[in-house]
Amino acid sequence: MTAIPYPSYELHTLGWKAFQDLCVTVAAESLGRPVQMFLPSKDGGRDGAFVGTWRSGDETGSSTIQCKFTSLPHEHLSFAMLQDEINKVKNLVKQGLARDYIILTNHPVSGVAEAEIKAQFEKAGVERCSVFGKDWIVGGIVKSSRLRMLVPRLYGLGDLSQILDDRAYEQAGMILSAMGDDLKKLVVTDAHKRSVEAISRHNLVLLLGAPAAGKSTIGASLAVGAADIWNSLTLRATSPEYMEKHLNPREQQFIWVDDAWGSTQYQRDRTESWNRILPLIQAAIKRGTRFLLTSRDYIWEAAKRDLKVHSLPLLTHSQVVINVQGYHEAEKAQILYNHIRMGDQPAAFRAAIKEHLPAMAARVDFLPETARRLGSQFLAGNLKTDRATIEKFFASPEGFLVDTISGLARDCLAALAVIYLSGGVIASPVPEEGALQEVTAVYGVSAIQVRDALTSLNGSLVLLAHNEQGRYWTYKHPTVGDAFSTYVSRNPEFLEFFLRGAKPETLMREVVCGSVDLRGASVRILPSHYPLLLKRLKGVSVFPLRNFVSYRAEAAFAALLLQERKDLLGGLQSFATPIAQDADTSLLVRLYEYGILPPDLRQGFVEAVKKAAIEEADTSFLDDSGVASVLTDREEEEILEEVRRVLLPNIDDHIRRVRSEWDSDYPPDDHFDELRGAIATFAKVTYTNEQ
Hints:
Strand order of the largest sheet: 1-2-5-6-7
Strand content: 5-15%
Number of strands: 17
Helix content: 40-55%
Number of helices: 35
Oligomer: single chain
Shape: globular
Distance between the termini: 91 Å
Largest sheet: 5 strands, mixed
């Protein structure tokens, strides 16, 4: 019977540093030797050394591991290639550091060569020499899904159909399609290792970082690993409602939510849905479902003030919440090296910038996406190669990207506009109706020119990927969408077209009115365009429109909208607790700030705040500046007096109330956190006032 051959992993394409990193992981996973790394210039003849002692039967000792890399896939290892190591080995033997000497190599190794190498090294004083060649390493990769997860670049080097079952292979294909060739350039960073540990031990990881920090790349590698190691069905959830609908306790699931609380700005309209599903996520984690969430750091800071994280306590644990952008300088150097080496810049460009690369890797503002762009002829081909220009490229990545977009031909601008008007994703082939019709009319190009332009931009600014519904076009990286938003804001002609052609939901996600300041790329609409924006938005359903007024509309536009949509005030008569987290509270506070809140609604709100404080120990009027701003000092004092008279003497009643709401799936200490904090706040404030 003929043996099935292993996949042909192209280890020779890794480069010596990446191969050495692979050897470190192989040594720990396959040989049981966690490895200490040494700097190349100060390794003392050791590429790596085993920390602790190895044990084989009754034998123990220290190990020295030597890595031997080749970029020639068919060059066999010979003793002559290792001749220079002999003198180093003799010194290691004298120091007692080479009792167990291991050679790991991606060279093919014949039996004859292995015997000669072992004999020569043992003659030099090594008690036991072992040689592990390419076939042994590849065999270890095939046998160990955990090894593949720890070194996810391997997924981009071999034929996955030979090691993954049909479903896992299909899952991996969809995930990798959304990465392009980025996986081959992936550097396993400390953040990646901690992410693997978190998803393995806690079934949850939240990746935080600035735009272009590498969150999605780590996320994709974890998702492929989940399909491999746990045979998980990966779901790319787009909303809490999607998760609620698709959570299946009978299925091994890996649920990935990119930009969980908004892609460029915090989307508060999702908060209520997230708070509803957090207990379901907690229960699903206990059943073995794994969750991967990503978010820009500033969005998470805004979101966690509104989220009931006590329903999912893991979201507060440092082992689970991982900041992706805290790269070590060596990691940044390897990321930069990979993108330059595997990019398509000509040799002359690479040679000219080589001397500047160490300084770029040392920059605090270094981002992997900027490194990718530097390696792209399309995105940085016209860049001057002096140090000042390269530094500016890293310091102002969005500015360079906006300039690149502004200089595109009309058909390429139209291609980006099709994706933009469609909310960042559009089916492939691009449908004739809708955004394509709008774009071709404005830019004076044909539909076939737009489709051809999408193909020409694939891999640089846009990406053709696929999921369960089929193929689709999207941005190569979310920052392309950010840059296109900036382009739209600077281009008055396209701005009007955008207001007329974009879907209302896209408008509500992308625009802000007048002087409203909202962090993240947004299209700013001035009063001259308010009539057109009002026309496009006045038919939108109540809830998203309330959210738009709360966070994106200035007073003048809010007043115009209220004249058209009196129903926006309909929800401002009852409030859920905590009142500060009710979406209607945000609208009421904003209307009060603008001076357009009817007096009867303000008075009703004051009564609701008073009732919530007394009956449910709600401290919103003390904790939230917006809620407090609606109350007069006298009204706040009256509420505190009622708290002192009614609430504090009857704390036991509230403990019984909260206990009756407890679900045994949750730790009781976490369940009582809100009440405990509220009582402490009220006691402190009332005591201070009495003094």
